[in-house]
Amino acid sequence: MLMRGVVRGSIWSGCIGGLAMAACLFGALPALALDGIVEKKVFEMPSYTTTGGGTIKNVRIGWESYGKLNDAKDNAILITHFFSGNSHAAGKYKADDAAPGYWDSIIGPGKPLDTDKYFIISSDTLVNLSPKDPNVVTTGPASINPDTGKPYGMSFPIVTIQDFVNVQKALVDSLGIKTLQAVMGGSMGSLQAFEWGADHPEMVKRVIAAIGGPEADPFLIGWLNLWAAPIKLDPNWNNGDYYGKAEPKAGLAEALKLVTLHARHWKWADAAFGRKWAEDGKDPKAAMGNQYAIEAWLDKAAAGRAAVSDANHFLYLVKANQTFVTGNGASLEDGLAKIKAPVLLIPSADDLVFPPDRNMRPLKERLEKQGNVVEYTESITSTLGHLDGVVNIGKAGDTIAQFLAK
Amino acid sequence: MLMRGVVRGSIWSGCIGGLAMAACLFGALPALALDGIVEKKVFEMPSYTTTGGGTIKNVRIGWESYGKLNDAKDNAILITHFFSGNSHAAGKYKADDAAPGYWDSIIGPGKPLDTDKYFIISSDTLVNLSPKDPNVVTTGPASINPDTGKPYGMSFPIVTIQDFVNVQKALVDSLGIKTLQAVMGGSMGSLQAFEWGADHPEMVKRVIAAIGGPEADPFLIGWLNLWAAPIKLDPNWNNGDYYGKAEPKAGLAEALKLVTLHARHWKWADAAFGRKWAEDGKDPKAAMGNQYAIEAWLDKAAAGRAAVSDANHFLYLVKANQTFVTGNGASLEDGLAKIKAPVLLIPSADDLVFPPDRNMRPLKERLEKQGNVVEYTESITSTLGHLDGVVNIGKAGDTIAQFLAK
């Protein structure tokens, strides 16, 4: 089903291989019709040169769109995704999907990102965490290196958040779009939004950043190291050479448990589990293997995510996040100075990954000091910590709508 | 050098095998003389039955004391240690030791825990993390099971915080002490202090608890699971059967990195490292193995700690902490109701392990509501997060002194 474009930056608006055939049934519908049915499309580049000078051939990135691009091609908004996310930001592929895209609460007809008005683009990143997810299209260590016919593994070039943005820029260019009404992202998506603002100030009218920061702060650099550690401990990781062999599922699952817990909060743990045991009659005091409910839940949640994820992609994402400073240079001040657009900051007060005291609160002051228009709201704060920026983004809906209307 | 007592609860005030011979030179000095020289002593129990019904023979626990027990034997204060700590709370073993015990800033002549007035006892716990530390004496999975002549490994009985307290109680009883002016501990030490208050209300005149809580909250239960995970991923762990073979050093080191980082704060990371590279000329963007300074520091700090620690002891400590509820029953309310003593709570406002919003702030209200006298201070808060409770305890010195004087 899937044809490859051969021109740099070509687009093929197709379905995802044989993995999600059902989605193809809706291929003829306009994206995000009234029933919210969306399709995955694929953007291809025959070759991409990374900011570090590496070459990646046959770059393929999945993307979705909601709403219609107007004739002036000036009503587009780009959505950039978080560490463990993908381009499925809104709508459903099939009417009976269990859930819509992650920000469906703010994307759609009459919603803050109003698809009656805006053309919303959402794209997968390079080295997306979940290359085995049938709804993800990405290029990374698990991809076949055309020069060898084998997966890249750890020979894949190091990529940065700026590389993610560069590939998105090529996608947006290929659509003839010269103006973005906004670039909006949460967590790692916010890093991309800041980078877009710094790299393309003439193009980006607004930056909307949720639960993130303008750089990886040193404490986060340390945490990212720890997120990655279980993968490297798993003997199946084998320095990244595991394709076609037993994969490091156990290490990847423990890494994903760390991400999952770090992105939440004690308020969530109290409400969801308390000190409940995993199984009636199996007192955690009675045997080392007897667990509390939260432990069993973490194991199960992580195993599910590990099944569609790739361990090397995880390590490359860690590196991309650790090395992030807005502007991709040495100086955060210089990078931020390149951002000319108004900026809307949406932190969760309880965020343990990007604590607002370290990130968005001082960022607000820095941006105002350099002359940017800055809006700021912590209205998404609920009980989920960092994850409030995904699940509870709707609480900032009015603020987002007003910011877009200005 | 080391003789074994054969009577239950006997004491032998000796030196630590052949591992710290120098300390024996000072064996004749009174504990914590004016020059702050202390000696490690060993408390032994021929047999101890755990709260879960397990039997541990030949229990040996290290302890230290500072100051002199008065004739009435009513001037004692017990110090209980944190997860990765031990009984070395004050003074030095040798005049040229690099550093004194961890709470030396508040223990000594004229200090808040005034050794001119009080007899301060500090004891190692069961399953202490660091059985290879020459200054630790403990009994746990790495100890020889007298029935088999081999290390217990994972056949060691599960132990609880209440078991730690029961062994300390036997030590205190053996000294003829019937009254403790206070039990004071930080982090896991605070759990023991609460347990002492609940189990022995007739004996404990005051509870002083720093950077802790009255139970392991569900979020902490999850984190403790994650702390333990790297050990189990290390193939050398081998279900705990590694004594005399290659030990799971890599997994233990990653576990200790998690403890180390979780116990600190972004303020510390900013001040100590910023985004500095580990090595000049080795840009972390240039190679997957090139690190930031904080990563290299974590690796080095953890490797040092792993060298004296035991992986199975780590797992048993995790279990003891996860299962903790004051009173060792199902109900926190019932456990707290047993505490009759005045309580001094000393959290760090930035504590990520025992966040005060979840732990000591609501605990203050609960204790006051049930009629306890409660003092509360966050004066230790600096830049270290949880670790402020160890490093900066001196900032609460006046409050501690006043609380003891009441």
TrEMBL record, chains A, B:
Its EC number is 2.3.1.-. It comes from the Bacteria. Keywords: Acyltransferase, Amino-acid biosynthesis, Cytoplasm, Transferase. The keyword Acyltransferase applies. Residues 156-369 form the AB hydrolase-1 domain. The keyword Plastid does not apply. It is found in: Cytoplasm. GO terms for biological process: homoserine metabolic process; methionine biosynthetic process. It is an enzyme of class 2 (transferase). Belongs to the AB hydrolase superfamily. MetX family. NCBIfam families: PRK06765.1. Homodimer. This is Probable acyltransferase. It comes from Azospirillum lipoferum.
